[in-house]
Amino acid sequence: MNEAPSSQFSAESYFATQPAPPTLEHDVAGVRAFVARQRELGRKVVLVTSGGTTVPLELNVVRYLDNFSAGTRGATSAEYFLQAGYAVVFMHRQFSLQPFSRHYSHSTNPFLDLLDVDPQSSDSQSPPNISVMPSKRAELLEVLQAYKSARALEQIHTLTFVTVNDYLWLLRAVSQELSVIGRQSLYYLAAAVSDFFLPRQKMSEHKIQSGKGSLIIEMDQVPKILKPMVDEWSREGFIVSFKLETDPALLIPKARGALERYGHQIVVGNDLHRRKYEVVFVSREHAGQDISEHWLRIGPGAINALGHPKEIEEDIIAELVKRHDAWIAAEPSAN
Ligand code: PAZ
Q: How far apart are CA 271 and CA 8, in angstroms?
């Protein structure tokens, strides 16, 4: 593929030329109702984005580029936000991991392996009883209770995206909806978003045919969406973006660069191979102050207060809740 410089889309020209997903209005109506309810209840609301975006190469899509992300960071973080009393808008890539059900992912911990069949209990009238294996009950109960509680308290609202275009349209719309709660809103942008896309106008309608040798595709750069988010859509929101790098030497300079360019609150930097054990918060304590770095690390085999294997997201969310509360408390008074 060719990464030669091509046309630059501003956010404005992007939305003027690329089509909105057909479900956008319906999705936005759902978010509006959810945010209104959370506002009545006085809850803080976090938008968690999670999973990778695709870039289709054809209108009748057979092939696409994808961004790496299983959705673990987002799904895990959403659980800790719920535990901290936040309402969560969980915007994730279709079929990526989700809060609670992530514990029983089909590949690492298949749900069917939790179950036992009691052949003694069957007769000609009824099928045998199915039960959860005793050794699995305590863990399942804990996850199930947290899940049921979040549902009963109407604390979580879920939205899905697949393409980078779906993601951008949804992000703009959801940010605008969340802006009504001002400083009570937090944006936790953990999705892995493509930097490149193929504008609709340049896409082939049908499957790209082979037979002409190599394939050369020129992609355009995805507009830098954090800029309008900070300046226009979510002016009072507490915005946390993520920066993923594979070259450790680039992590801090890139995270600092993003903070300087967009002027939001925090960039969480993570290295692909170390992301489950260490992250770095890059931020300014106060506007105008120097940028500082704060590392969070967990050791291998770390155990949390409940006796479970420690997840770094527990510490990330605890730190963010503290900083978000300080941000809310610092709100300039109305008079
Ligand atoms: O979803 P996951 O747990 O497999 O990975 C999380 C992550 C590395 C995608 C996330 O922490 C992140 O850095 N997101 C931003 C990626 C980016 O720079 O576009």
A: 28
